[in-house]
Here is the input.
Amino acid sequence: MQALNDNVWLQMSSTWNPATEIDVAIVGGGVVGLAAALAVATRGFGVVLLERERGFGHGASTRNSGVVHAGLYYPEGSLKAELCVEGRDRLYVFCAEHHVPHAKPGKLVVAHAHDEVPALEALHTRALGNGVSDATLVDRAFIKSREPHAEGVAALWSPSTGIVEPEALVKTLARLAQAAGAHLLAASPVIASEPTQSGIELATPAERIRARVVVNAAGLYADQVSMLLGGEPFRIYPCRGEYAELAAAACARVQGLLYPVPHIAGHSLGVHLTRTTHGSVLLGPTARYQNSPDDYESERLPLEAFLEPARALVPSLTLKDLQPGGTGIRAKLCPQHEPFADFLIGRDRRQSRLIQAAGIDSPGLTSSLAIGERITIFVGEILT
Here is the structure.
């Protein structure tokens, strides 16, 4: 599981003129920024997207499990719940229409002992409250019919949960956004800003851009960007997730997605097994808060740390069935001692020309198209 390579595979349009005021500048070229660029450009607004890295989607967008979440976990009425369900449906349609590799193998959230069943039932109730009407409680026989190598006394079955190839999704969004008229500029970090009579002027190392509206979709750097733009203060807490993978010979023991019963108030859905669109099987992610937004490798967990979670899901797995995997870093809006933070999506309370799309951790990939559509509403409120 690797992020996109360092080639800048999309260049700015030859019609781009930084001296001309543009309707919307989007800061951040991950899946949320790209989805917003596509949605806003499709509405006929002029768009420029600024990405600090040399390519797009190098951060959390491609350093994840590639799961299309159904909407089981999030508090009823939260943006995470609402946009996950909406985004899931949009994403399946989008992937089918644009030939993005994806599948819908379904997910089992497995209770390994009877004392976990009440938590499973509570999760089922939450899923139904979020509009996930096809989530059902199932018994051991059903588990074995779907996942012969898994063990459990009961499970929550989610047929709407799927997988997508994140790299292909990022590339497709970027291609379509550019085709819709958006200008995508890599290696263009925002280093300064200044309010103007009609918007905000952004400075990169190479140019100055006058925008009538700015969207902050800067991921792990969204708090810094908000401060730079004179927006409301908040803090992003980097939370690293590490992965192992199953060796090729062991991948046949997992058919779809296997999850443990989560701690609802925790920061992780639990280390789980995910069969990818490539046929490999990921084990993870873990969750560990850290100070750095870009430290993916120091003090990595030993492979042995993944064995117990792996065996809890598939008891026949041994250490020789595991191999090292990749890492990702989530952009969280709450510290480790707080149980939940919702997405921050909306018009900034201090800077009237700024729209925030921050704290987009899981289910951000699933929700990305819905977030993009939501951003167009705020853009329209400001510009029309």
Summary: Residues 1-14 have pLDDT under 50 and may be disordered. Helices lie at 31-42, 79-98, 117-129, 140-146, 166-179, 222-228, 307-313, 364-383.
